[in-house]
Design a protein that fits this description.
alpha/beta, eight-stranded parallel beta sheet, four-stranded antiparallel beta sheet
């Protein structure tokens, strides 16, 4: 039987409005869920919720299991009695249209420590039992994460390969000593993760009760300077000092004659197979605790990955090496049952990748911006889709649809216009209609496209080391007119019941109206 048609919106919590410099899990997030509900959307896709790393990227995290402390709502902590109202009311004058990560970190992290000090002093006594339960239930990853972060702080933030030898190599005596000596710091990092999980689970419950499921994101590779590599060195291809011997990348292609050198350590798939892929099973299990559907970034690496000798200046000297294939997903299924996966199968895709995807029955991705090369056989054109795919107007790595269309050559713009039967004057919503009308079971729309924004709202430019991940929308941009228009199209193309009528201007009117979430 065919699965139900559905649609949703791609928007990371950091993009929500709010007064503390970054979107968080407070009122702005709940208002967004309300807006999705009015718009008839059943899905909300986020990027990784883990702490950000190099370049403020959520795809370069120090922990694949932890939550991002910057997403914790300070207003919520004040409501719990862990902060004074003055602590959160006297915030710096942050920009409201972008995240200034350095300033946000300097502002929020001291307040999280203040909240922890109050917790230790007896505040929020009703949370104590839940905190201890959380620490015990999540100990398989939480103990290592908290110790890693505490030791990293003690070493001035330096990479773990620069720590003193005993703790760098996780010698048992050193682990015991550092855990004892940093007891307070370890407990602080556990407290932060407890607060993140507590707030996120309440937001997820709120969404699920409104028939909105959350799509999470697992990057296939992890950062070298991460607890994941430090705590599981035998599962990665490292030398005896913990330094990678090979790293991941992407081969040369027409867009880059030297390829892309990502630098992530490469898994030792033989070592992972020897223990039944336990680390990956734990990773997917942890993800399923916080989201409903799991998207796997760079799925092709499970079939074969581009592996480059460490120290090479570019990726050109790499080679393809086979991955675990179906064996890892069979192990996950055996341990966890059928996990609802979406797989990212973009880029250099060879027959073995398609064969693995089809063997597993996972839906792949179709991005409309890749479709218009004046070739009717282009697999990204909707008339070539099968039902078991997820169609996107754009992903976090793409230009916004308006920016993309404006930057196309005239011949490509004409190809788009011929296909959609429109002059492209409302190109973002033309592609939204195209995605929703397609036979794809699932359609995911970039929020920037729903809002008809240009490249000033782009989330990430691959290969650009800084200036990414910072876009935030303003409160008035998420208005009922957009919800009404999107809900109408969603119902027309059978992706959900017709939404309840809302007040406010129609989405085709660029004028906006303000609303407030009842919890704000």
């Amino acid at each position: 039987m065919r699965s139900a048609r559905a649609s949703g919106v791609l928007a990371h919590p950091t993009s929500f409005p709010g007064r503390h410099g970054i979107g968080d899990l407070g009122p702005g997030a709940f208002r967004f869920v309300d807006w999705l509900t009015v718009a008839g959307q059943r899905l909300w896709q986020v990027m990784p919720l883990s702490p950000t790393g190099f370049g403020d990227s959520p795809y370069a995290s120090p922990s694949a299991f932890a939550g991002n402390p910057l997403l914790i709502s300070l207003d919520w902590l004040a409501g719990d009695g862990l902060l004074d109202r003055q602590d959160v009311d006297e915030s710096p004058d942050f920009r409201d249209y972008e995240v200034e990560f350095g300033r946000v970190i300097s502002y929020k992290l001291p307040l999280l420590r203040r909240a922890f000090d109050r917790f230790r002093a007896g505040a929020a006594v009703d949370q104590r039992a839940a905190f201890e339960t959380f620490c015990e239930a999540e100990s398989s990853w939480l103990n290592d994460h908290a110790l890693f972060m505490a030791v990293k702080d003690a070493h001035g933030g330096r990479a773990w390969t620069e720590w003193e030898e005993g703790i760098r190599l996780r010698q048992p005596e050193a682990v015991t000593r550092w855990t004892r000596d940093l007891t307070g710091e370890v407990r602080y990092h556990k407290f932060v993760q407890f607060q993140f999980r507590r707030q996120w689970q309440e937001l997820k419950r709120y969404a699920n009760e409104r028939d909105v499921q959350i799509i999470g994101d697992i990057p296939i590779f992890v950062a070298h300077d991460s607890v994941d590599v430090w705590a599981h060195q035998h599962l990665f291809r490292l030398d005896d000092q913990g330094v990678p011997t090979v790293v991941a990348g992407v081969p040369p292609d027409p867009f880059s004659e030297t390829g892309q050198l990502w630098g992530n350590p490469v898994y030792d798939w033989n070592a992972m197979a020897a223990d039944g892929y336990a680390w990956w099973i734990d990773r997917v299990r942890a993800m399923r605790d916080v989201v409903d559907i799991v998207r796997i970034d760079h799925f092709r690496g499970f079939a074969a990955a581009w592996v480059v000798p460490a120290g090479d200046p570019t990726a050109a000297g790499g080679r393809w090496e086979r991955g675990p294939g179906a064996a890892i997903f069979d192990a996950i299924r055996s341990a966890l049952g059928d996990v609802p996966f979406i797989i990212e199968d973009l880029g250099v895709i060879t027959p073995d990748v398609n064969a693995l995807r089809d063997e597993m029955g996972f839906p792949g991705m179709k991005v409309l911006q890749f479709a218009f090369e004046d070739d009717p056989d282009n697999p990204y054109l909707p008339h070539n889709y099968t039902e078991n795919v997820v169609v996107y107007t754009a992903t976090h790595d793409n230009q916004t649809t308006i920016g993309w269309f404006q930057s196309r050559r005239e011949a490509e713009r004409h190809a788009v216009q011929r296909y959609i039967g429109s002059d492209g004057s409302d190109i973002a919503w033309d592609l939204i209609r195209l995605a929703l009308a397609s036979v794809a079971d699932t359609a995911v729309l970039a929020l920037q496209d729903v809002m008809r924004l240009g490249d000033e709202a782009r989330m990430n430019t691959p290969g650009q080391p800084s200036g990414n991940w910072a876009w935030r929308y303003l409160p008035h941009q998420l208005h009922d007119g957009l919800a009404a228009g999107l809900g109408e199209l969603t119902a027309v193309y059978g992706r959900r019941r017709r939404p309840e009528r809302v007040t406010g201007r129609n989405a085709y009117d660029y004028t906006t109206s303000d609303t407030q979430h009842p919890l704000s």
